[in-house]
TrEMBL record:
<comment type="pathway">
    <text>Cofactor biosynthesis; biotin biosynthesis.</text>
</comment>
<protein>
    <recommendedName>
        <fullName>8-amino-7-ketopelargonate synthase</fullName>
        <ecNumber>2.3.1.47</ecNumber>
    </recommendedName>
</protein>
<feature type="domain" description="Aminotransferase class I/classII large">
    <location>
        <begin position="54"/>
        <end position="394"/>
    </location>
</feature>
<dbReference type="InterPro" id="IPR004839">
    <property type="entry name" value="Aminotransferase_I/II_large"/>
</dbReference>
<dbReference type="GO" id="GO:0008710">
    <property type="term" value="F:8-amino-7-oxononanoate synthase activity"/>
</dbReference>
<dbReference type="InterPro" id="IPR015421">
    <property type="entry name" value="PyrdxlP-dep_Trfase_major"/>
</dbReference>
<dbReference type="InterPro" id="IPR001917">
    <property type="entry name" value="Aminotrans_II_pyridoxalP_BS"/>
</dbReference>
<dbReference type="Pfam" id="PF00155">
    <property type="entry name" value="Aminotran_1_2"/>
</dbReference>
<dbReference type="GO" id="GO:0030170">
    <property type="term" value="F:pyridoxal phosphate binding"/>
</dbReference>
<feature type="modified residue" description="N6-(pyridoxal phosphate)lysine">
    <location>
        <position position="248"/>
    </location>
</feature>
<comment type="subunit">
    <text>Homodimer.</text>
</comment>
<dbReference type="InterPro" id="IPR004723">
    <property type="entry name" value="AONS_Archaea/Proteobacteria"/>
</dbReference>
<keyword id="KW-0808">Transferase</keyword>
<dbReference type="InterPro" id="IPR015424">
    <property type="entry name" value="PyrdxlP-dep_Trfase"/>
</dbReference>
<keyword id="KW-0012">Acyltransferase</keyword>
<keyword id="KW-0663">Pyridoxal phosphate</keyword>
<keyword id="KW-0093">Biotin biosynthesis</keyword>
Length: 412
């Protein structure tokens, strides 16, 4: 064995020691992350670390991940196409089911074409880094998702950050900085706060300032707009670039971008996160297509209506609960953050909730800004009124007990 490959028993590499020290530093800050062990389907009930609990941490907003028609579509596709694509879409992985799914999405989104990616992260990184370069300007909301942030970084474009949902500040950034091409990018419904971007104002600003508008509809797809087609459609806004995911309300996996045919063809030729990866399994495309048919059906309308009702009921109960009322957002949403503040208190409350049968995961820096750690409750159409009442009761008791050891100002 060469000296390069040999190791001595009882020694550790410098790299291992480095990782351990950095992990200890993360732990000292109260930011060490672990992965909960989940069993079974992500329905209203879920088994987490061997405890059965009400599920308020899944993005399965419409309950479609366990829908019989969606499961059957996946099984049928697995029998027909196999369980894996085994090649890039530009080589031998472009199954016909992807074309069917993309045609359906384009028609649903009222665009010329659509393109499916393996995940929302791959889509945002691939879209932004392909369309923009060092000669260009990107104007981005300060609370945009990490995938948007990373896409901006990879593009090497100048990036100007504007205050959250502040259209005037966004316009000032477009005026202030030069760029060969200009792109304004925002989520439509924000993943950690549940609030909505002022898309009509942003669209008007982009037209006035000669900028493209990109809207990430990850948490609005299937929920907002006509037939669940998104917040942009609800507000009659037509962004040049419409991105959305298939792994949240749709209940499966993957993501899409919809727009002009020339945009889609350009991304097929330039998007590295599409070109240099194995295509998603055809069975996920078939399952997503089945789920989208449900979303556009009367059943989908009923599920959306129930989700809205649950969001309003949950928000009302939170606002009426003394121990957390100041920590709740002003507007009801299927994403309901309860901002605690300190990371340690947030995670203790989350653990206490799970101990009492409610799974609401704590969200900390760097996912959210420092000092704004929160429990992020995500609602489902399958939740009952009794589920909502129990969640608020358990949260109230946990918050009242644990925050006795912290300043009341911690509940932001």
């Amino acid at each position: 064995m060469s000296a390069r490959c040999s190791t001595s028993v009882g020694t550790q590499s410098p790299e291992k020691g480095q990782w351990e020290e950095e992990l200890k530093a993360i732990e000292r800050k109260g930011l060490l992350r672990t992965m909960p062990l989940v069993s079974g389907m992500p329905g209203r009930l879920i088994m987490v670390d061997h405890r059965v609990a009400l599920n308020f941490s899944s993005n399965n907003y419409l309950g479609l991940a366990g829908h019989e028609k969606v499961i059957e579509a996946a099984l049928d596709a697995a029998r027909r196409y196999g369980v894996g694509s085994t090649a890039s879409r530009l080589i031998a992985g472009n199954s016909e089911i992807f074309r069917q799914l993309e045609d359906f999405i384009a028609q649903w989104k009222r665009t010329e074409a659509a393109l499916v990616f393996g995940s929302g992260y791959q889509a945002n990184v691939g879209i932004i880094s392909s369309l923009m370069d060092e000669r260009d300007l990107i104007v981005s909301d300060e609370l945009n998702h990490a995938s948007i942030i990373d896409g901006c970084r990879l593009s090497r474009a100048r990036v100007a950050i504007y205050r959250h949902v502040d259209a005037d500040d966004a316009e000032q950034a477009l005026k202030r900085y030069p760029g060969r091409r200009k792109l304004l990018v925002t989520e439509s419904v924000f993943s950690m706060d549940g609030d909505a971007a002022p898309l009509q104002d942003l669209s008007f600003i982009c037209r006035r300032r000669g900028a493209m508008l990109m809207v990430d509809e990850a948490h609005a797809t299937g929920i907002r707009g006509p037939q669940g087609s998104g917040l942009a459609a609800e507000l009659d806004v037509i962004p040049e670039i419409q991105m959305g995911t298939l792994g949240k309300a749709v209940g499966v996996a993957g993501a899409y971008v919809a727009g002009e045919k020339s945009l889609i063809n350009f991304l097929i030729n330039t998007s590295r996160s599409l070109i240099y990866t194995t295509a998603p399994p055809p069975m996920t495309a078939a399952a997503a297509l089945a789920a989208l048919h449900i979303i556009r059906s009367p059943e989908g309308e009923r599920r959306r209506a129930q989700l809205y009702e649950n969001a309003n009921e949950f928000h009302r109960r939170l606002k009426e609960t003394r121990s957390v009322s100041n920590a709740v957002s002003a507007v009801a949403s299927h994403i309901a953050p309860v901002v605690i503040g300190p990371s340690d208190a947030t995670m203790r409350i989350s653990r206490e909730c799970l101990r009492n049968g409610v799974f609401a995961h704590g969200i900390r820096y760097p996912t959210v800004p420092e000092g704004s750690a929160r429990l992020r409750f995500t609602l489902m159409s399958d939740h009952t009124k009794e589920d909502l009442a129990k969640a608020v009761s358990v949260l109230s008791d946990a918050a009242a007990t644990i925050t006795l050891h912290h300043s009341r100002e911690c509940l932001c």
